[in-house]
Each structure stands twice: as structure tokens, then as C-alpha cells.
User: Which sequence fits this backbone?
């Protein structure tokens, strides 16, 4: 059962050659496009950055408030009361931060 098989290179099919040709043409087109535009990757515009910032403020406030409320519940043994209070305060803090950013 431990017979050694002779080392043979895999046979390339016409489909493999077509895929290789396609990949080469794609690399060439990408290189021409990078040369034409003068940049490697497009830079995000101001609206995209603002949207990401608003999203992170809202999610960060919610997660931060939830974690702090959960920890306070475990320390003081208040059931889930402080968890809910922390979530609400986190959401309100997130919205406050969003309003502050939007008013600039």
C-alpha cells in the first residue's frame, strides 16, 4: 500500500489556460487603471467618513452603556435594572454625540 507514485506534473487543460489568460489581462487592466488615476485605492469621501463616525458613536454608546450597566448589576446585585439603565444612557449618549457632530 505504500507504493511511491511517480512525480508527474498536472496536465494543463484549455480551461486552465483560459483562466490564466483572464487573470493576466485583469492584472494588466488594474495596473493601467492605477497608472491612469494616479492612486492605488480610492479615498473615502467626506460623507462616507461622517456616516462611519455616526455609526461608531451610536454603537459605541450602546455597547459601552450595556457593559457598564451589566458590570454594575453584578457588583450591586440589582437584577437587570442597571443593565437597562446603562443601555438607555448609552443610547442617549450616542445620540447626543451624533447631534454634536452634526451641528459642526
Assistant:
Amino acid at each position: 500500500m505504500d507504493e511511491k507514485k511517480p512525480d508527474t506534473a498536472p496536465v494543463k487543460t484549455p480551461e486552465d489556460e483560459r483562466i490564466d489568460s483572464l487573470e493576466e489581462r485583469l492584472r494588466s487592466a488594474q495596473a493601467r487603471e492605477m497608472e491612469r488615476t494616479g492612486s492605488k485605492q480610492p479615498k473615502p469621501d467626506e460623507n462616507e467618513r461622517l456616516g462611519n463616525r455616526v455609526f461608531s458613536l451610536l454603537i459605541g454608546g450602546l455597547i459601552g452603556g450595556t457593559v457598564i450597566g451589566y458590570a454594575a448589576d453584578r457588583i450591586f446585585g440589582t437584577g437587570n435594572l442597571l443593565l437597562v439603565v446603562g443601555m438607555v444612557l448609552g443610547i442617549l449618549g450616542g445620540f447626543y454625540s451624533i447631534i454634536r457632530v452634526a451641528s459642526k
